[in-house]
Amino acid sequence: MAARGIINRRELLAAGAVAVTASPLTALAKPTPPAARTMPHVDSLSLVSPDLRDALAQWRRDPGDFAINAATLARVRKLSEPTVPNAPTPPYEEHSIPGAKGAPDVRLFVINPAASGPPRPAILHIHGGGFVAGTVDEVIPKLQRLAREQDCVIVTVDYRLAPETRFPGALEDNYAALKWLYRSAATLGVDTSRIAVAGESAGGGHAAGLAIAARDRGEVPIAFQLLIYPMLDDRTGSSRPVPPFIGAYVWLPESNRFGWDSLLGVPAGSRNVPAGAVPARTANLAGLPPAFIGVGAIDLFVEEDMEYARRLIDSGVATQLAVVPGAYHGFDIIAPSAPTSVAFRATWSAALKHAFGRE
Fold first, then answer.
1. How far does the chain reach from its first CA to its final CA, in angstroms?
2. How confident is the model at residue 335, as a pLDDT?
């Protein structure tokens, strides 16, 4: 890891986020993005929190700049390799479980299992990567730390990526892992009344979609959803413009269109998308588990995340929303030691403890 608590572009990829500067899949016909709203000129860098600026500058200077599209996707994925060795404790296990009917087996890791002692809470974790990149292996070190802090079991899923696997492939992989976790509770030492779903960026979007699917199918109760700058709405940056100073760093509107194009199989922002594929387009949010949503104030996802939180609240879902001033997408990964990042992590960690009944 880079010095002074700063992480570079390659390391950010290893954590499951992807920066994109190129056009999306050429196989899809693209609608012309709408013009940005009329806004006063704002220097986007002036909006970045001072303690996050040096990290952003170092990350942007990294020579590993790349464009992601159909031609470069393989190279981007190769960069998503673990750069931090896994800690010896708590232990973890690799499993291969049956997928949905007609789908391949699902690979997952279980962190901190223990059949003895009182049952503990569990987290079904889904990694980020814009729906098109990232791997389960790279997130194990940070999940080991989380499992120690929360004294919980964590299952993290190696779901199939787009564009090779369109929706609902990843959803079904994640749901298979959730059912396996629920049915294996006695073996893993899990309290089935305290199962949370969690994810960052695209993983947060997948986690939100999984919570909706679990509610609708009625097989596995979910107690909480921890959504860290979740990717919830394909219309952001496509049929819905954003101010030019929002999403100016790390995850760009072009990135968003590529990721959603890849998952949906139709252009982002299309009038009709596959049912259940976009959490923000779900008409009924009632009956979903309590949620924490955290996002930076200059993250591309800030408006869609705030709107989703508002809709959850209006639907009677207990929801905590944290909007971090001056924070861009993935700020806590790029500058993990910055006071802004430390405070943000403490905020969502406290929310998770509250959900698990551990004040």
1. 33
2. 97
Active site residue 329: yes
Q: Answer for the pair 1, 7: CB distance below 8 angstroms, yes or no.
A: yes
Mean pLDDT of the chain: 88
Is there a catalytic annotation at residue 23? no
Residues present in the chain in total: 359
Closest CA to 211 of 184, 190, 232: 232
Question: Are 298 and 249 in contact, with CB atoms under 8 Å apart?
Answer: yes
Give all domains of the chain, ordered by start, each with its CATH number.
Answer: 3-21+45-355 (3.40.50.1820)
CB neighbours of residue 297 within 10 Å: 16
Q: What tens digit of pLDDT does each residue of 112-137 get?
A: 999 788 999 999 999 999 999 999 99
Residues forming beta bridges with residue 93, ordered by sequence position: 110
Q: Which of 201, 238, 262, 341 is catalytic?
A: 201
Cβ atoms of residues 226 and 348 within 8 Å: yes
Residues 169-203: tens digit of each pLDDT: 999 999 999 999 999 999 999 999 999 999 999 99
Mean pLDDT along residues 52-61? 87
Known catalytic residue: 206? no
- Give the H/E segment covering residue 308: helix 302-314
| Euclidean distance between CA atoms 336 and 70, whole angstroms | 31
